[in-house]
Write a structure and sequence with these properties.
It is built from 3 helices and 10 strands. The chain is mostly beta strands. A hairpin with a 6-residue loop joins strand 1 and strand 2. It is elongated, with a radius of gyration of 16 Å.
Length: about 160
């Protein structure tokens, strides 16, 4: 199984130039997640697809978004300063050009399931022992039409 790690490390570009980040975030911020710098100066950024500067992610979802470097997301929230965005929620739009299914891994009667926050459930066919051991973790998965794993990533440990 491929964890698509290569796709999550594709964005090593600098923060874009252009116009400043909009101060009206009623629609949120949409763009690619990027992690810049080193501890203790590490920043989690969302680089919008439009010509505006990257915004630094703040708030309770910062760590989850850090695990999504390279993914395209739509974050809701509000600006807490110039180029600082306090995230109150987010949606993963694309990973490696594909739409992932996001949820918590659940092992039930020998079957490995992914349960989304809205209750949708997908079964993973023939999961690896490594994936089964992650039961309880919040993950993104990309499955083929038969439910076989094409890629996955851990967003939050159990």
């Amino acid at each position: 199984m491929i964890a698509l790690g290569f796709a999550l490390a594709v964005c090593a570009c600098g923060a874009g130039g252009g116009s400043p980040a909009p101060q009206d975030a009623s629609d949120g911020v949409t763009g690619r997640v990027r992690v810049a710098g080193n501890t203790p100066f590490e920043q989690v950024l969302i680089e919008p697809d439009v010509a505006s500067d990257a915004v630094e992610v703040r708030g309770e979802y910062r760590d989850e978004l850090r695990h999504l470097s390279g993914a395209t997301v739509r974050a809701s929230g509000s600006f807490s300063g110039e180029h600082r965005f306090e995230v109150s929620g987010y949606e993963i739009l694309k990973i490696a050009g594909q739409e992932p299914f996001v949820g918590v891994l659940d092992l039930r009667e020998g079957d490995l399931l992914v349960r989304s926050v809205d209750g949708e459930v997908k079964q993973i066919r023939s999961p690896s022992a490594e994936l089964v051991a992650l039961a309880g973790a919040k993950v993104w998965v990309i499955l083929d039409s038969n439910g076989a794993m094409k890629g996955y990533g851990v967003i939050r440990e159990r």
